[in-house]
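Q: What residues go here?
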């Protein structure tokens, strides 16, 4: 089991999306397969660290990066002004054949995970792995940006 260290408050963003959509803790729990008590604790403690981030993001139809984006609300607006979850964009990519993923990148990206091992994972596990890697890349990018800004000051 792994834990993703997040730069912004996961708990406040979970609450923001859940309440904006008018969802109860129970509804989010059912959609994410994360226990109601866990979601409640994440929200109350304003948690910044959780292994459940990717599953909760998917329940909102978001990537983890989008869930953590405090500057933009990644939801669609209906004609009556209410918010709805966007169509899940990660699904087709997560289900793409491994060779298509590798070709799109020019080479297999992992040294210690073979394409055969990757194929053994289910779609959900592949999506979790990709979301985790995306969070690491985004954190590294944000760190580099902060360092560049600090050196200019």
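A:
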């Amino acid at each position: 089991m792994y834990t993703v260290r997040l730069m912004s408050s996961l708990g406040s963003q979970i609450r923001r999306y859940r309440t904006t959509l008018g969802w109860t803790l129970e509804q989010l729990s059912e959609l994410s397969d994360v226990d109601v008590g866990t979601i409640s604790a994440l929200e109350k403690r304003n948690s910044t660290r959780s292994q459940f981030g990717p599953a909760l993001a998917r329940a909102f139809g978001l990537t983890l990066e989008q869930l953590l984006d405090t500057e933009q609300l990644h939801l669609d607006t209906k004609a009556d002004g209410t918010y709805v979850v966007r169509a899940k964009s990660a699904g087709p990519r997560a289900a793409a054949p491994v060779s298509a993923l590798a070709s799109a990148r020019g080479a297999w990206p992992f040294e210690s995970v073979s394409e055969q091992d990757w194929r053994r994972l289910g779609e959900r596990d592949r999506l979790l792995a990709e979301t985790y890697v995306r969070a690491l890349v985004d954190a590294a990018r944000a760190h580099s940006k902060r360092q560049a800004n600090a050196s200019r000051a």
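A: Context that may help when evaluating the design: The first helix runs from residue 10 to 20. The longest strand covers residues 4-5.
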